[in-house]
Amino acid sequence: MPDDQATVPPGSGPESGGSAGDAGEPSNLGRVVDLEIERELQDSYLTYAMSTIMDRALPDVRDGLKPSQRRILVAMNDLNLRPGRKHLKCAKIAGNTSGDYHPHGEAVIYPTMVGLAQRWKMRVPLIDPQGNFGSIEGDPPAAMRYTEARMHHAAVEMLADLKLDTVDFQANYDDRLLEPMVLPGKFPNLLINGGMGIAVGMATSLPPHNPTEIFDAIVRVVDDPSIGLGELMTDVVDESGAVVRRGVKGPDFPTGGVIRGRTGIIDAYATGRGRVTLRGRCHIEGKEGGRQSIVIDEIPYSLMQQTLVEKIVESIKEERLTDVSDVRNESGRQAQTRIVLELKRGADPAVVENQLYQHTPLQQTFSIINIALVKRRPRTLGLREMIDCYIEHRVDVIRRRTAYLLREAKKKAHVLEGMIYAVCDIDEV
Question: Which pTM does this prediction carry?
Answer without folding.
Answer: 0.85
